[in-house]
Amino acid sequence: MEHAKNPPVESPYFTAAEAAAYLRLEESTLNAMRWRKEGPNWRKHGGKVVYHRDALDRWSRGRDSDPTVRNEPGANEDGDGARS
């Protein structure tokens, strides 16, 4: 009698490699950010670092740039493009 394989479990928890791919980062970048306490919130499950999808989304949303601020070459601190 042959045993059927269990279908993969749809999990909201990502490994570091999966989380990095989700965020379009290198895994080494995500790991370095974790050590510097700059990256998304993470957990340990059985000694393995995992990231919850909601934490990744929340962290990414916090990285939104302000569309009213322009960082153009030659722009002064006022952002009007005039040279000081």
UniProtKB/TrEMBL annotation:
<dbReference type="InterPro" id="IPR041657">
    <property type="entry name" value="HTH_17"/>
</dbReference>
<feature type="region of interest" description="Disordered">
    <location>
        <begin position="57"/>
        <end position="84"/>
    </location>
</feature>
<feature type="domain" description="Helix-turn-helix">
    <location>
        <begin position="13"/>
        <end position="60"/>
    </location>
</feature>
<dbReference type="InterPro" id="IPR009061">
    <property type="entry name" value="DNA-bd_dom_put_sf"/>
</dbReference>
<feature type="compositionally biased region" description="Acidic residues">
    <location>
        <begin position="75"/>
        <end position="84"/>
    </location>
</feature>
<protein>
    <recommendedName>
        <fullName>Helix-turn-helix domain-containing protein</fullName>
    </recommendedName>
</protein>
<feature type="compositionally biased region" description="Basic and acidic residues">
    <location>
        <begin position="57"/>
        <end position="69"/>
    </location>
</feature>
<dbReference type="Pfam" id="PF12728">
    <property type="entry name" value="HTH_17"/>
</dbReference>
